[in-house]
Design goal:
Length: about 230
């Protein structure tokens, strides 16, 4: 009997600024509604209830952005620009005041969202997996190591569509800081080297149409640009 073999797929990697060694992506964790104005625009009350998390598969990363295929099964693909934390040192039960020691670096990322499917899932009390964790749903800038970026906790985070400002916030407006989010998540999973943590988006999310040029930027970290072609 001949058993067919399935090729072993290499780990997705993201370039690291100033280094020839890329960052291997293990998992992508995402914080929901971490800016008060965005929580309000999604119909929630930002009352500093405990943070909640969802995830994307590691191979959702699109290093450097570029021209992508518009996803199937949606008529409302939305942009969300986010500061992304790259975990370099693993741990569980991490104390908030120790949490930044686990950070390798930072990137700016886009948490692309099938908003229509997400709304349907919310109504039905179902998971967000296909609304959030689809192919190419995480375009990312190169990762800037802590030695270069420091630990950005203030500064502009913006997104433009065809040069028009659509999302504008400041990292200091996060409901849960980077350290607090790491600490909280590490109570539920062993945070591992290679994990990415998307830290939430400021207000102004909205649709992206084929042909539009979308640029997300985070002061001191970088930027990433994408556009969609019609399938
Ligand atoms: Mn998001």
């Amino acid at each position: 009997m001949t058993v067919p073999s399935v090729p072993i797929v290499p780990v997705p990697v993201v370039p690291v600024s100033g280094s020839d060694t890329p960052f291997p992506v293990r998992r992508i964790w995402c914080v929901g509604q971490n800016y008060a104005e965005h929580a309000r625009e999604m119909g929630s009350d930002p009352d500093r209830a405990p943070p909640f998390f969802f995830s994307k598969p590691a191979d959702a990363v699109v290093p450097g952005g570029g021209v992508l295929a518009y996803p199937t099964q949606t008529a409302a693909l939305h942009h969300e620009v986010e500061l992304v934390v790259a975990i370099g040192v693993g741990g569980e039960g991490i104390a908030p005041e120790q949490a930044l020691q686990h950070v390798f670096g930072y990137a700016v990322g886009l948490d692309m969202t099938r908003r229509d499917l997400q709304a349907e899932a919310k109504r039905a009390g179902r998971p967000w997996a296909l609304a959030k964790g689809f192919d190419q749903s995480c375009p990312l800038s190169p990762i800037v190591p802590v030695a270069e970026a420091g630990h950005p906790d203030r500064g502009a985070i913006t997104l433009t569509v065809d040069g028009v400002l659509r999302q504008s916030g400041d990292l200091s407006q996060m409901v849960w800081s980077v350290g607090e989010a790491i600490a909280f998540l590490s109570r539920f999973v062993f945070l591992a080297p290679g994990d990415l943590l998307m830290t939430g988006t400021p207000a102004g999310v909205g649709p992206v149409r084929p042909g539009e040029v979308v640029t997300g930027a985070c002061a001191g970290v970088g930027e990433v640009t994408i556009s969609y072609r019609v399938r």
